[in-house]
Amino acid sequence: MENKHSLKFNRPKDSRLFESDKEIRFDLPCETEFDNLSYIGVVLHETWHVPNHHHEHFELCYVECGEGWFTIDGSFYKVSQGDLFITKPGESHQGAAAGDLPFRLYYLGFNLELMRSLEAEYYKIGFNRVEKDEKGLVKSIFDNILEELRMKIPLNDTMVQGLFIQLLVSIVRIYNASSQVGNQESKKLTSNMIDILNYLHADFRADLTIEDLANKFHISRSHLAREFKQHLGVPIGEYIRSLCLDKAKHLLRETGESVSSIAERLHFTSIHTFSIFFKRHCGKSPLEFRKQNSSR
Fold first, then answer.
1. What is the pLDDT along the chain (296 residues), one digit of tens a residue?
2. Residue 182: exposed, middle, or buried by beta-carbon count in 10 A (0-12, 13-18, 19+)?
3. Which of 137, 139, 138, 159 is nearest to 150 (CA)?
């Protein structure tokens, strides 16, 4: 695919914590006997989006709540609450939240160079990359690892490594248990579709039309509408409206920007047009929504 870039991880000498109201991330390792765990984090962001990239390690994502999508080398996967998603070293992938539900994603980067038997098991994972954590085991282990990293008590690095190995084995068992079922069907995305998704999430405009997109990417309107519905399961117009509403909710809840400023940022023709749109799809005015949901 085009515009690939590598996110090669430069391993720090000591663990480092990055924290905000929307994300917490530990870059590792701690001072451990073997440094397989590179980073672990949680992101809570309704408009979360990661553009196409690849890296030199395995990565696990777990959706605690909400809905979204990922691609691997153009193959498209939907994810929702309780889903696991694995990428392998060198695979180009991207992802985003979708819909208007709260979104919370756990993620973890790791290499298995010193754990060859497990490495072989992970490379055996096939094309069906999305699996359910039916018993909630993966989330539980994730939470325990994060708690140990926060506590900074004696032997917590040893405990983290033990939990990490438990997590790795549990994931392999989940994938192996359903490997013959193949319950997650993927679809191959065209390069145009990938570019369109990146474009929509990177620079969203409420005044964007299907005709604008079709012209920009040199395809017919009918072909674009058909392909988008086939791959994402929703009409492209509905997807654009959903993006607009998600972005508006995020700005109203998480920033102090005025309603008129938000309307202008989202490229509505006027604050009146924005207010009508918001109330039609949310059931309340932007100011009512802000009063009831503001985190500031």
1. 334 343 433 333 455 777 777 788 888 754 444 468 889 999 988 788 998 888 889 999 999 999 999 998 878 899 999 999 999 998 989 999 987 778 999 999 998 888 878 888 898 888 789 999 989 999 999 999 999 988 878 888 889 989 999 999 999 999 988 765 545 555 667 778 888 888 888 777 889 999 999 999 999 999 999 988 888 778 899 888 888 888 888 888 878 899 999 999 999 999 999 999 999 988 999 999 999 887 55
2. exposed
3. 159
